[in-house]
Structure formats: structure tokens, C-alpha cells
């Protein structure tokens, strides 16, 4: 199966400066996300979210808060007929020296182990930061950049990315 690997914060939902994540459990969906995700599904992609959540181990949010936010996000997407195949997250800081904090490969390694029928050459990666791009590069995944890393001063949405790159998808 072909996968669209997607970053979460700043790609699907709004991102915030780290300290502003405290107490947040309700995602704000970015403009164009729903339409873009629906298009990816129509094009035959299964969607896997890969997300760095070092704010957990930094103590800014609790693990429960992470799960609440993620649950609400999935519920919101589902109410728009978008099924997400799976989500893999890294709670670690650099000091933890894990293998999964993007751009390290752990999150995609786990996905490949769990879903051996993933076809990487036909899969893609969509994200908004350099760690996403570097991770995609290591698996030779086609990378499409969301230009939303500046807290939405200018936003280039999933929908625009998919519409612009239809011939490559
Ligand atoms: Mg991001
Ligand atoms: Zn990790």
C-alpha cells in the first residue's frame, strides 16, 4: 500500500510556540487540511501521522494531554470522513538520545515493521519543517513542503500541495 506520511503540528493543525501548548486539548485545523487529506484519500493513500512531541518529556504537556489532543483530532477528522491509518509520536528530548525524534528514522522504522506491505517508492511525505524533509530524504520519499512553519503568517496548505503536485502523486 502507498502511504502519505504526514507531520501533524503546522501541517494538519495549527502549531504554537512550545510553551503555548500547555493545557491545549482542542486542535485548530489549518485551512485546506480537510480538503487536502480527502484528496490524498481519493488518490489512494493511507495516511500515517509522524510527530515529534518532545514537549511531553520537557514537562510542558502531560502524556494524557497528548492523547486527549490526538483523540480530538482523530475524531474531528473522522467526522469529515477522513480515516487515519496510524499515528506514531516521539515524546523524547535530544537529551534522551532516542532513535525516533525526527529526523531520526525510528517513527518510520516502526511503521514499516507494523505494516510490512508499505510500498515506499509510491509513498510520499508532507511536512512543514526541515526535520520532516531530512527524514523523508533518508527513505527517498517524495517530499512536499507545507510552508506554515512561521505560525501561519503565510500558509501553504495540504490542499494546495496536493492540487499543485497532482501529477507526482
Ligand atoms: Mg510541524
Ligand atoms: Zn524519540
Structural overview:
The protein has 169 residues and is α/β, with parallel strands linked by helices. The chain has helices at 33-42, 54-57, 63-78, 106-114, 130-138, 158-164, and strands at 3-6, 46-52, 86-90, 124-127, 142-145. The chain has one domain (3-168): Rossmann fold. It has 6 helices and 5 strands. Helix 1 (33-42) links the parallel strand 1 and strand 2 (46-52).
- Ligands: magnesium ion, zinc ion
Quaternary organisation: single chain
CATH class: Alpha Beta
Q: Strand tally, please?
A: 5
Which class do the helix and strand fractions yield? alpha/beta
Task: Using the alpha-carbon principal axes, give the shape.
Answer: globular
Total domains, how many? 1
Straight-line distance between termini: 14 Å
What's the average pLDDT?
Answer: 95
**Strand order across the largest sheet:** 3-2-1-4-5
Helix content: 25-40%
Number of helical stretches of at least 4 residues: 6
H/E element order: EHEHHEHEHEH
CATH H level: which superfamily?
HAD superfamily/HAD-like
Could you tell me the strand content as a percent range? Answer: 5-15%
Question: Any descriptors?
Answer:
169 residues; alpha/beta; Rossmann fold; five-stranded parallel sheet; 5 strands; binds magnesium ion; hydrolase
